[in-house]
């Protein structure tokens, strides 16, 4: 991934203790990974999407940098929060687009990761977000695993570290959550 995990952790610790210049030193270390993550999200968005990966990274990073009271623990947590922010930004963007368009289409899931197909439309992004919100009400840990694995792009090991749970638990929760989300999206949320 390119960045030094130890240096990222040190900078996050400096940010916790109030260092104002730590955030500017952090960006070069995590930018490529954030950009890769944003590019992956954008590949899954509808064709002709006007939001670009660079803009998504910059907006997410701007919001992260503005969190004066954040208690950053490690790189995995930071990337998890960055992934959540990107999700929220894409959902907000999809809501605005959907409100302007008011069209509909069937939601499908990619078997591999349980995410919207490459031809995803704004409605599909919103449907996935609503299903994930319902999952969070039923099983917050499963929803958190989905956010970290899918939206933040963390590995199972990194997710386990970020949540303080076992690798086996992460894998079990990930499998169950994907199945539940697929069922929700296939039935329009009535399952």
Brief descriptors of the model:
about 190 residues; 8 helices
Proportion of helical residues:
55-70%
DSSP strand tally? 0
Distance from N terminus to C terminus (CA atoms, Å) equals: 39 Å
**Sequence of secondary-structure elements:** HHHHHHHH
Q: What is the overall pLDDT average?
A: 76
Rg, Cα atoms, Å: 17 Å
- Please work out how many helical segments DSSP would assign: 8
- Content-based structural category: mainly alpha
**How would the global form be characterised?**
globular
The domain tally reads 1
Low-confidence stretches: 102-120
Q: Which band does the percent of strand residues land in? A: under 5%
Largest sheet entry: none
Architecture overview:
This protein has 191 residues and is mostly helical. It has one domain (5-186). Helix content is 69%, strand content 0%. It contains 8 helices and no strands. Helix 2 runs antiparallel to helix 3 and helix 7 packs across helix 8 (167-186). It is globular. It starts with a helix and ends in a 5-residue tail after the last helix. Mean pLDDT is 76; it is low at 102-120.
What's the SSE blueprint?
Elements: H1 5-16, H2 22-43, H3 53-65, H4 75-101, H5 122-138, H6 140-151, H7 156-163, H8 167-186
Write a compact overview of the structure shown.
It contains eight helices and no strands. By secondary structure, the chain is mainly α.
């Amino acid at each position: 991934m390119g960045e030094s995990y130890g240096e990222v952790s040190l900078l996050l610790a400096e940010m916790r203790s109030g260092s104002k210049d730590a955030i500017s030193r952090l960006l070069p270390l995590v930018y490529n990974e954030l950009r890769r993550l944003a590019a992956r999200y954008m590949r899954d968005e509808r064709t002709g999407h006007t939001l670009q990966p660079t803009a998504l990274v910059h907006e997410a990073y701007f919001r992260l940098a503005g969190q004066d009271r954040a208690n950053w623990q490690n790189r995995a947590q930071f990337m998890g929060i960055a992934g959540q922010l990107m999700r929220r930004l894409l959902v907000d963007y999809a809501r605005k687009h959907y409100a302007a368009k008011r069209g509909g289409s069937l939601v499908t899931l990619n078997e591999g990761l349980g995410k919207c197909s490459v031809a995803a439309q704004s409605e599909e992004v919103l449907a996935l977000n609503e299903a994930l919100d319902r999952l969070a009400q039923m099983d917050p840990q499963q929803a958190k695993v989905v956010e970290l694995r899918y939206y933040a792009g963390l590995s199972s090991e990194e997710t386990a570290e970020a949540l303080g749970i076992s690798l086996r638990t992460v894998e079990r929760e990930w499998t169950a959550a994907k199945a539940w989300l697929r069922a929700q999206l296939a039935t329009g949320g009535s399952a």
